[in-house]
Design goal:
mainly alpha; about 110 residues
């Protein structure tokens, strides 16, 4: 048993202090992930993965924290103005047909 050797009051405080220290350490380690989920940033899973695997390096932890504090992009609002249809001009007349036969002058005319 892990706690079998603890018999006096001082040992219990030491174990309790160690447990509290470990809990606070883990909470501090995952601050970027906690912030990302609370803020609802779009890349919160990327922050969590980066924090989990590279958080032990100070640079990975800082990068994850910076990603967690990034602002959410503002939703884009598209405004569509419906205009009544305008009066359309009548359709254009079809182009004149071109004759394919050539006219021959009459031979009997002077």
């Amino acid at each position: 048993m892990l706690f079998a050797q603890v018999s006096d009051g001082e040992g219990a405080v030491g174990v309790l202090g160690l447990v509290v220290f470990i809990i606070l350490g883990v909470a501090f380690y995952f601050i970027p992930t906690i912030v990302a989920f609370v803020k609802g940033v779009p890349n919160k899973m990327s922050v969590a993965i980066l924090n989990f695997f590279l958080g032990w390096t100070f640079i990975g932890w800082v990068v994850a924290l910076a990603m967690a504090f990034r602002d959410r992009p503002a939703p884009q609002q598209v405004v569509v103005y419906n205009q009544p249809p305008t009066a359309q001009a009548p359709p254009a007349a079809p182009p004149p047909l071109q004759s394919t036969t050539e006219t021959q002058p009459d031979e009997g005319t002077p």
